[in-house]
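Researcher: Next entry in the queue.
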Amino acid sequence: MESRIWHQHYPAGVPTDINPDSYPSILQAFEDSCDLYGDKVAFENMGVQLTFNQLRQRSHNFAAWLQKNTDLKSGDRIALQMPNLLQYPVCIYGSFIAGLVVVNVNPLYTAREMEHQLNDSGAKAIVIVANFCHELQQCVSRTGLKHIIVTRIPDLFPQPKQFIVNLVLQYVKKMVPAYSLPNTIDFRELTKDHGLKPKLAVLKNSDTAFLQYTGGTTGVSKGAVLTHRNVIANMEQMKAWMGNSLVQGEEVIITPLPMYHIFSLTVNCMAFICLGGKNVLVTNPRDIPAFIKELKGQKWTVMTGVNTLFNALLNNEEFKTIDFSGVKAVIGGAMAIQRPVAEKWKEVTGTVLVEGYGLTESSPVASANPLDGSARIGTIGVPVPGTDMKLTDENGKEVPVGERGEILIKGPQVMQGYYNRPEETDNQIKDGWLRTGDVAVMAADGYFTIVDRIKDMILVSGFNVYPNEVEEVIASHPKVLEVAAIGVPDEKSNEAVKVFVVKKDASLTEKEIKDYCAENLTGYKRPKYVVFRDELPKTNVGKILRRALREEEAAKG
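Model: Structure for this entry, 557 residues:
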């Protein structure tokens, strides 16, 4: 393809292709890394470390307990619902050892959101942090869960730190609401050395590794089927892209973006394991002073994150006192990096904030800027090794260089489809090409720049918010007649949700709408702005025109 002109911009030594069959499974990649890096630290959280050997032992204990004490069999789904904790990689790799398919669940989900995802995925087991069990309590009877494993934030901390942290979280900060769940299993039981050895599952790279939930283009949350081969391909693409800039077994990567998010999952939790790096897990990156203290206490070389986080750091004076001399790469994804943020980052840290691009359906990375200093601010870089990208018009015809078109992606990292949704899969993938809904322009030398979106998706701090879901919740309020949701620019979160509501009952207030959303939607999906209208713009067949509302907002400046 002529458009592969982008290969000329690959850093020296970066191949144009990778081998997605380099491992038979993610599990084998993990086992090989443990053999190679043994006593090096794999993960650190709140000062507590797990070496590769310790991680392997804990993961094996976890899998062996499940195989001995539950009816879970290879191919069954296990949900993981937790922030960045040491327990997460233990559960990921332990699940693969037992042959299970992992379903990542946002820990901040409401009972309604959890119920849909657990039922849609067919999850039979869940590992959930105690802080969120009160939400599970509300919906567990309407799910197919058979095994509920409860963990507490410091479960893998040594004593007396474990006891003290539990005491503070439960009784001082009151971060663990009361709950009542039947027959729960204590996570600590699963991971201690109980003398059991697991039977390592025989996995093929065509087997499903993750059902990773996304809104797709319609707003109905659905599971992207990512095989071991899909994820291995993206791991290999990241290793190839970063390989010449980094040293195996020596890097320290700061991991503030939650690993249940596809970007952090593949790049941090997966690719850096294979590079023998140490992941420093940040459980609550919103606590900027504590986050900066962590950055000061580490000799870190790499950090991944999102635009809002980088902006928050730059607006803290203490951040400027950090020693950045050892930093090799800072990578932004999940949302666009704003030019002022990238420029200020370079000014303050002396390092380049490199932007990449991808989506859940592509495991996720599809393109990236080079790490050799030639990154172009404002672009999403060039397609990574083994990946093709093209731009097409509304008729599916490829557009000339310099013209706008929808991004289509082809490569071994592209998902198999949406779980149990063949029609939507067929709409999204044509002849191996994944439609993204993002509109871009390709320069003559192969760099891509996103200029618009086809789909109505709203991007809040790197997380997808789909208007259909927000509208469905608000429309279920007895005092609402009609509702439309759009995204509007926001300095802190890139976009914010704004809803336009037609009342059924004149007494309806903004507070009622926001309170109702707080009960049914996780924080980033809730509307920041509520506007009441007498009517909403519609097509001649009665379909609400979100585009007209967006245009009205844009006209206001």
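Model: The chain has a mean pLDDT of 92.
Researcher: Noted, moving on.
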